[in-house]
Design goal:
Elements lengths: L2 H11 L4 E4 L6 H9 L4 E4 L3 H15 L3 E6 H7 L1 H9 L4 E7 L15 H5 L5 E4 L3 H15 L6 E7 H5 L10 H4 L11 H11 L5 E5 L6 H14 L2 E4 L6 E3 L7 E2 L4 H8 L4 E5 L23 E6 L5 H11 L24 H11 L4 E6 L7 H4 L6 E5 L8 H11 L5 E6 H4 L5 H7 L4 E7 L4 H9 L7 H5 L10 H7 L4 E4 L2 H13 L4 E6 L1
Parallel strand pairs: 1-2, 1-3, 3-4, 4-6, 5-6, 7-8, 7-11, 8-10, 11-12, 13-14, 13-15, 15-16, 16-18, 17-18
Antiparallel strand pairs: 9-14
Helix pairs in contact: 1-2, 1-7, 3-5, 3-16, 10-13, 11-13, 14-22
C-alpha cells in the first residue's frame, strides 16, 4: 500500500468521504487511489477557491469535515481567500496539498514554493509527511484536529514520493480510534453563568449577543425563555456561520452593519452578555468613529466560547434567572403576498419570504441587495441562513455548492451580487456537473455598490470619474444569462417582480441548478 492509498483509507476510516479537488501532477497517485476506494466522492472544482469554499459550506451543513485536494503552493494560494472565510466561521476542513518529491525540491523547479509558509496563516494544524510511513498517522491527526471544538483547518502537505512510495508497515494504527470523532465540548463555567445572571437581573438595560451554535433552533429556544423572563434584547452577530430561523423558531435581531446604526441600536444597553461571540465591533475602521460598537459604559459578560457547551450554558443561565418554565416568543408564519411592479430589494425580499420552501438553505453574499431580505424572511418557512463571516469576496457560489452536498435533498438559494459572483463563477459548473439543486440569484446592478457606501463612510468625498471607474461594472456589461448557460446552468433574466416570482417558483420546483439574473 503506497502513501496515497493509506491517505484515502485513513480519511474514509475517519468519516471523511467527500473530497473537493483540483489536482495536478504531484497528486496523481491520490487520484489513482480513488479508483480503488470508490466510497470517496471526489468533486472537481475548476478553481481552488471553489474547492476550499465548498468545503466550508459542506461543514456548515453536514457538521463534519470534508477534505480538499490542492496542487502545490500556487494551488493552495488560490484557495486562501475561502479558507480565510472558513477560519472565521470555525469550519473544519482537512486540506491535502501536494508538493514536489523531496529530492526534487533542491532544483527549484518552476512550481517550487514555500508550501508550509503559504499554509500556516490559514491552518490551525499543519504537518508535512516526509515518507509514506508518516501519512496514516498524520492524516489521523489532521482529522482529529478538524473535528475539534470549534472546527479547525488542518493542512497535510504530501510530497510526491511520500504518495507513490510503498509503506514499510501500512496502517500501523487503528484509524477508527486515532481519527477521533468530534471532541466533547467543555462544561460551562459557573463564574461566567453567575456574572451573566447578575447582569440580566440588575435592572439595567441588557442585551444578549449571539454567535456560533447559540443561533441553532435548540439554543434559541432557551434564549427565548431567558429573554421572556428578563426583558433582555437578543442580537445576532451581523454575520454568522449558520442561523436556524423562520416560523416556529425564536428569532434574534441582526446587529446592523453600518457603524452609526449599530452604535445607536446598542446605545441603551449597560450589560451585554456574549454567547459564543466576541464583543460587537465594526467591520472596518472609519475616521472619527468607534471600533467597539457598544456604549463606553457597557460591561461585556462572556457566557461561553466556541469550545464550550452552549446549550448547557444557556440552560444553566435560564435556571439562574428563573426562566426554567417560561415560554419563549416564537416567530409566527406570515403568508407574504407576492410582489408586483418594479424590482428592488424590498420586492426581492417579499418574493423570497413568499416562495422559500421549508428546509431551504440560504447562502447570503448579496451585501447591499441582501440586507432587506433578512428581516423580511424572519416569518418565512423554517430555513437556515449562512453568511460570510470573513468578508472575503466570492463567498456564496462555492459555499452554496458545498452546502448542497452537505444537506442532500434540501434546496439551496444562493444570493449574490454581480461583482461578488465574478470571483467564483466556476462554482456553477460544479453545480451542473453534480446536479445540485442550487438556485442562484445574481443581483445585477452593474456596480460594486458596497464600495460606494464605504467611499462615503470613510469620508473620502464625492467620487470622480477615476474613482467611479473602479466601482462600476460596465464597459462591457456583464451578461449572467450567457455565463450561466456557458457553465451548463439553465439561466434567465428578470426585470419585474412578477417575472422574478415566476422564475423563482419554477427554479425551486425543478431539479438541478438554475440561475436568475435580477436586474436592478
Amino acid at each position: 500500500m503506497n502513501g496515497a492509498e493509506i491517505l484515502v483509507n485513513t480519511l474514509l476510516s475517519g468519516g471523511i468521504d467527500v473530497c473537493f479537488a483540483n489536482p495536478g501532477t504531484s497528486e496523481m497517485h491520490f487520484v489513482a487511489a480513488l479508483d480503488r476506494y470508490p466510497r470517496m466522492r471526489c468533486v472537481l472544482g475548476l478553481f481552488e477557491g471553489v474547492v476550499t469554499g465548498a468545503a466550508d459550506g459542506y461543514y456548515r451543513m453536514a457538521g463534519k469535515p470534508a477534505s480538499t485536494l490542492l496542487h502545490l503552493g500556487p494551488g493552495l494560494a488560490n484557495g486562501l481567500s475561502a479558507l480565510h472565510n472558513a477560519m472565521k466561521a470555525s469550519s473544519g476542513i482537512v486540506n491535502v496539498v501536494g508538493d514536489h518529491a523531496s529530492w526534487h525540491l533542491q532544483y527549484d523547479a518552476p512550481l517550487t514554493s514555500d508550501v508550509d509558509g503559504i499554509a500556516r496563516p490559514v491552518s490551525h494544524w499543519l504537518k508535512r509527511s516526509h515518507a509514506p510511513d508518516d501519512v496514516g498517522r498524520h492524516a489521523a491527526e489532521a482529522i482529529e484536529a478538524a473535528n475539534g471544538r470549534p472546527g479547525a483547518i488542518a493542512t497535510l502537505i504530501l510530497p510526491g514520493d511520500a504518495a507513490w512510495n510503498e509503506a514499510g508497515t501500512p496502517l500501523r494504527f487503528d484509524p477508527a480510534t486515532s481519527a477521533a470523532p468530534h471532541r466533547q465540548p467543555l462544561a460551562p463555567r459557573a463564574d461566567a453563568i453567575d456574572a451573566a445572571a447578575r447582569a440580566l437581573l440588575s435592572g439595567q438595560p441588557a442585551a444578549l449577543f449571539l454567535g456560533g451554535a447559540a443561533l441553532t433552533a435548540k439554543a434559541m429556544e432557551i434564549v427565548g425563555r431567558i429573554v421572556a423572563k428578563t426583558g433582555a434584547r437578543p442580537f445576532s452577530q451581523t454575520f454568522a456561520a449558520r442561523v436556524e430561523r423562520g416560523a416556529g423558531r425564536v428569532a434574534a435581531e441582526r446587529l446592523p452593519y453600518p457603524v452609526d446604526h449599530a452604535v445607536e441600536v446598542l446605545k441603551p444597553y449597560r450589560h451585554i452578555v456574549t454567547v459564543q461571540a466576541s464583543q460587537p465591533v465594526g467591520f472596518f475602521a472609519y475616521p472619527g468613529k468607534p471600533s467597539v460598537l457598544s456604549h463606553p459604559e457597557a460591561e461585556i459578560h462572556p457566557l461561553c466560547g466556541l469550545q464550550e457547551d452552549v446549550v448547557a450554558a444557556l440552560e444553566a443561565l435560564a435556571e439562574a434567572v428563573g426562566a426554567a418554565g417560561v415560554q419563549p416568543v416564537r416567530a409566527m408564519r406570515a403568508e407574504a403576498a407576492l410582489p408586483t411592479g418594479a424590482l428592488n430589494p424590498l420586492a426581492i425580499a417579499q418574493a423570497l419570504a413568499a416562495l422559500m420552501p421549508e428546509d431551504a438553505v440560504v447562502v447570503d453574499e448579496a451585501i447591499t441587495g441582501g440586507f432587506s431580505s433578512y428581516p423580511l424572511t424572519a416569518t418565512a418557512a423554517p430555513h437556515d441562513w449562512l453568511q460570510n463571516m470573513g468578508g472575503s469576496i466570492g463567498f456564496a457560489p462555492p459555499v452554496a455548492t458545498g452546502a448542497a452536498l452537505g444537506a442532500p435533498g434540501r434546496p439551496v438559494i444562493c444570493l449574490t451580487g454581480d461583482g461578488s459572483a465574478m470571483y467564483s463563477l466556476q462554482a456553477l459548473w460544479t453545480q451542473a456537473r453534480e446536479s445540485l439543486h442550487v438556485v442562484t440569484l445574481v443581483f445585477s446592478n452593474r456596480t460594486y455598490q458596497i464600495l460606494k457606501m464605504e467611499f462615503a463612510g470613510v469620508g473620502a468625498g464625492e467620487p470622480g470619474p477615476s474613482a467611479l471607474a473602479m466601482m462600476n461594472l460596465d464597459r462591457p456589461d456583464l451578461n449572467w444569462v450567457k455565463m450561466g448557460e456557458g457553465m451548463g446552468v439553465p439561466s434567465t433574466r428578470v426585470t419585474t417582480a412578477e417575472e422574478l416570482c415566476t422564475a423563482l417558483s419554477r427554479a425551486l420546483s425543478a431539479e438541478g441548478p438554475s440561475l436568475i439574473e435580477v436586474m436592478l
